[in-house]
Amino acid sequence: MVAAVESVVLDESDLKAYGALSNANRCPRGFRKVSVLGKGGCAIVWLCQSIDDPKIQVAAKQFPKSSVFIDSGRDELRQNLQMFDANGDPVVRDHRGSQHICQLVGHQEDKMDLWLLFTACPGRPLSKLLCQTQGGFVHGERIYDAIQNEETYGVLQARNCRQLKLIIKMLLEALDFIHECGVVHCDFKPENIIVDLDAATQTVSSLKVIDFGSSFDFQDINLKLDITTPEYLPPEVLEHNQDLKSNMGNLRNLLEYVSPWSIDIWSLGIILLECVLSYPIWMAYKGRIIRPCSAKTERVESAIVTGLLGVTGRVPKKIIKLQQQHLLGQNSIANLMARQQTALCLGSLNKDSGFQSFIQSALEGNPKQRTAPHDLLSHAFIGDVAR
Q: For 199-214, how does the pLDDT look when each residue is reduced to its tens digit (9 = 90+)?
């Protein structure tokens, strides 16, 4: 739920299902549509403005009642109400992490739609801030370049990566709050992290975690767990999904060997790896990492690479093999970092033993041994970084 993003184009099927920007009949009561913020597989998010007070804006997530995804909308509403009550107050009072969640401020239902109303958050998705992916040809072969955002890298690398560490601290606080509420996000990825970054002051002004459309109550994990974005999910989730699809009997009770934070803390580890390695973790196609030429730096480009966990078709079984190859063996993280081109890694953190230790704590193969967000807040890599 962001206040400004790249333009989103609605096709004919979208207009039929959700209505046009100008359609006042398909709008939350008391609001008018301003723009499209985002489009997903089961909903569209609009920036809406209060008719009575134009200064009041919300991000309105629209679920058409005619859609097969209307139940997903109702589930998302229930999960948000598990974190924030009907008055918008956090269920776990005085928890710092609540301020890093895009807050549900209301919901409406009419004959056509279910509307979830969220705070309109400034900033851009972390994925868009880090790099721009651009297709091209090299020696006649199609490749996809990840072009680093010089402004973003400048802010995150300054003062011993202080602002990156602040982002990590905010994310840990957010995850700790989510899990204290008994919720598992289960689609934690760079696209669902909105960061407001001020290049002039070289600071991160705010951070919000969005999109609880795939979340569930931890106690319902055996019933609700599903594959969302597989490259960010831990091996036990991918394996459980495979067992379900193969109709295996005697499925393990996930509550016995997974902690409330196990899934999301693994996802955080993958997100941070992607930030430092500077190439989309999911990219199955060949490409290069490029640091563009600027007044301060020369152009640097990598050899041809693919995403660390990228496989054609996003097949979970193949992703598990890559997890085992790159992340789960003895000294795997250290060996992975040693193979990277330091000049292209954010803050040269591939050489930082503290960062490696932090990542190892999040990407532990045994889900019960992954460090909880609350405990990672005291990790030496974070130090005493303050807001």
A: 889 999 999 999 999 9
CA–CA separation, 191 vs 1, rounded Å?
A: 11
For residue 62 the two structure tokens come to 């629209």
DSSP-assigned letter for residue 2: B
Residue range(s) of every CATH 1.10.510.10 domain in the chain: 124-376
Instruction: List, by residue range, all CATH 3.30.200.20 domains of the chain.
Output: 12-119
What's the pLDDT score for residue 180? 97
Mode of pairing for the β-strands spanning 141-148 and 287-291: parallel
Q: Are 17 and 67 in contact (CB under 8 A)?
A: yes
**Sorting pLDDT into bands at 50, 70 and 90, what band is 2?**
very low
All residues at 6 or more sequence positions from 364 whose CB lies less than 8 Å from its CB, including other chains: 370, 371
- Cα torsion 113, 117, 123, 129 to 10°: value is -40
320-353 core/surface letters (b: 16 or more CB in 10 A; e: else): bebbeebbbeeebbeebbeebbeebbbbebbebe
- How far, in Å, CA of 192 to CA of 8, rounded? 16
Please write the tens of the pLDDT for every residue from 208-238: 999 999 999 999 999 899 888 999 999 999 9
**CATH classification of 124-376 is 3.30.2130.30, yes or no?**
no
Q: Would you call 226 helix, strand, or coil by DSSP?
A: coil
User: Tell me, what DSSP letter sits at residue 27?
Assistant: S
- The topology under which CATH files domain 12-119 is Phosphorylase Kinase; domain 1 (3.30.200)
